[in-house]
Amino acid sequence: MKQHESMVYVLGILLLFVSALYASRLYASAESDYELGLQAYKAGDNTVAATYFESAMEQGMESLSLSYNLASSYYKLGRLEEAKAYFLQLEKSDEMRDIARYHLGLIAVKEKDVSVARKYFGLVSGDGRDKKLIQLSDKHLESLSVKENRWRSLVSLNLGYDDNIYSASGDSVLDEADSFYELYASGDVILSGGRKDGWLIGAGLYGMDFINTDTNDQYNFLLRLQRAKKISDWEASFNINLSKSTYAGDDFQTITQFDALGRKSITRRDRIYLRYRADIIESDNTTYDYLEGWRQRARIEYRNYAARNIKHVYYEFELNDRGTLVTSTDSYDYSPLRHTIRGVYTQILDENWWLIGDLSYRYSEFDASATADRSDNQWKFALSADYRIDRTLKLFAQYQYTDNDSSMDRYIYDKSVFKIGLSKLF
Predict the structure, then answer these.
(1) Which of 59, 75, 154, 378 could staple 404 via S-S, CB 3.0–4.6 A?
(2) How far apart are CA 404 and CA 385, in angstroms?
(3) What is the reported pTM?
(4) What residues does 333 pair with on adjacent strands?
């Protein structure tokens, strides 16, 4: 009996020794990753630095310097949301409060949120203890008071090729390919407050013009009134949009839309989004009267941000109350009930190159009618490569494949679209 107890005691001592040795090795590994991160950070390789800092943190290392260096790496990479989350944590520390607030002000400047930038620079200027940061904050406050950049705009120009512009079945005479030009431009201005808590008004233009045919050209013009507001720990925006579109050179639709979006951080890396949109659709062309009515969409989305990748997935539910489509052979109510699941994965190769994979599935079920029942299963896959010259200028190329299967033969099709383009944020 005593011999058995002695063996148990010895085994316990061995287990404690092994556990302590394993823990020390983990800590040593975390320390080495942190040191490698510092070397990469000092060399200006912020992508590699963030990866090592993340690794050290995942292995259990916790320190203010680690959190600061990871936040700073994210900031220099333009990963502002992740940087902001860490700096907000660092703001709670007496030791790091000034520098955290200063960086939160810099992030607000990049996000063109003047009111938030003033808030943080003002806190450093009024309550800070670091003389250098106080001087820098005063300069920023002076600059912001002299010139407020309340305007923001985006312009994107693309050239593309569509191998099935009418989304027609493969054996249809409408199965036609063509190249196209694509333009998107939008802009908004702050009426009062800031972009995170204020009133904004904006406008947008979208156009797609095919080179060899005019029968599928599309243009859309939009006006928007937006109220952005912080509600507890949610960032919310409420929009009223009015859009008017043309198709093949003729009037098409007028849509009045209410759009509500909420965003919440659940951890330093994870976000959840909720969105609801309601459309009142008016037909401006008797040919498309069957599309007139209302549409409602509700979405829940999850996003995860890491040092080298971004993952997000969402589910969307759609309800419609529209008209009836009548053809020479059949007719059916055009009020689909739809379920959509979509996942997007972004791989950040370095500070310039980003690769994006996008996969979605949509199921559509149309109301039963006397002559035809219709349900569709649609898969979409897209692969994109972005070259980010700087935070405001981007070159990109994209391939997208769509496969639509339907219970009605005329709606069975597949298509491939290639695009290259340039976008600029002002």
Answers:
(1) 378
(2) 25
(3) 0.70
(4) 324
